[in-house]
Amino acid sequence: MRSRNTRRGMAVAAVLVSGGLVLAGCGGSDSEGSNKASGTSPGEGKAECEQLTQFGDLSGKSVKIYTSIVAPEDQPYKDSFKLFTDCTGAKVDYEGSKEFEAQLVVRVKSGNPPDIAFIPQPGLLKTLVQDTGKVVEAPKTVSDNVDEFYGPDWKAYGTVDGKFYAPPLTANVKSFVWYSPKMFAEKGWKVPTTWDEMLQLSDTIAASGMKPWCAGIGSGDATGWPATDWLEDVMLRSAGPDVYDQWVNHDIAFNDPAVVTALDKVGDILKNEDYVNGGFGDSKSIASTEFTDAGLPILDGKCAMHRQASFYAANWPEGTDVSENGDAYAFYLPPMGDEFGSPVLGGGEFVTAFTDSIETQALMTYISGGEWVNEKGKATPNGGFVSANKNLDIANVASPIDKTSVEILQNPDAVFRFDGSDLMPGAVGAGSFWKEMTAWIGENQSTQDTLDNIEASWP
Prior knowledge:
Blueprint: E1 62-67, H1 74-80, H2 82-88, E2 91-96, H3 100-109, E3 116-119, H4 122-132, H5 140-149, H6 152-157, E4 159-160, E5 163-164, E6 168-173, E7 176-179, H7 181-187, H8 195-207, E8 211-213, H9 225-238, H10 241-248, H11 257-270, E9 303-307, E10 329-332, E11 344-353, H12 358-368, H13 372-378, H14 400-410, E12 416-418, H15 420-423, H16 426-442, H17 447-457
Parallel strand pairs: 1-2, 1-3, 8-9, 11-12
Antiparallel strand pairs: 3-11, 4-5, 6-11, 7-9, 7-10
Helix pairs in contact: 1-13, 4-16, 5-12, 9-11, 16-17
InterPro entries: Bact_solute-bd_prot1 (IPR050490), SBP (IPR006059)
Protein name: ABC transporter substrate-binding protein
Pfam family, one: SBP_bac_8
């Protein structure tokens, strides 16, 4: 997933225009008269359109969305916006691109930005706000929705210097290992519940002649991000949430001994030629294998396990039985001991506006409210959609993995940590971290050199 799975995407912000929608309950300016509601909303009298009728009749208007989410994952998004069109009359012009990371920057600098972009990195959002001054603040309708439907942490991820810019779009839980329940049953293998058990199982599988792991970190301009997820997940397990927070905030150096230990543990799997890379080649092949393809050899019996987020459910071919006893499913990436419990790594995307037009504010209000998440859930029957929105009915979430993920995200007691690279400054989280982890894999660069180089790049 980005496709929705390109779980990283660079984003650039839009023209900063102060003010907001001139409507009851919304503050702002209307210097050009384009932000006033006019006419009777097509959704008037419909309960599901209640929050959108304040925007009036937007027929003839359109909102341009630019994102890294491409086919086949784009169709559920397009379908989820049908209610918005029914309620407002406005259409959504959806454009997904595998070149999103590079092209969005070009488009913004050339004065041709989309109305909205989906940004998966709070750290990059912060960099854009502070370095460009062009990101548009979210209107009050959106801010109020996030207060109502999300926990305070999620609003904080979209806030920079005390100003709220970007409401959540989707979420994901990353601490999963995909496998084939059918294969495990046939081979007599048991799902591991501790890290040591997982390594013992890996040895057993390797001894059988099969590579226990397959992996891929290729993702176009964002190549390398799946390797950063590996390190973050292991940091939570080997060093604990508190040290993880210190690392993400740069309260300890990027090359702190705790990080060296964690990356070496990742290397025990990803650089172990007995373990990888099932179906593709040696360990270096991980760097050139697209992450969207990386888990597929499980279906051919060429590897047994693939660590990837909940959204990977959308990457299995049509007809794959994704279930607890089926062709593919996932188990929780085990903890390394009892000291730090069972921490969960996750991430998400955020909606950032490039204009304060009334139709753009209406769409952001729709996405951030309680209706869109259920429309998106119903529009994603094959699974691969998760949100931390409290109004999401789990009955509208397709797969058991997604349901489990939603329960985790909605549980206030969960030890949840947001993807570290997404919180770091863009130059690191969407730059040197990806690049150096790719060199660590593809060029067999040493752990120390890799972390030293990233530390040296910190702004």
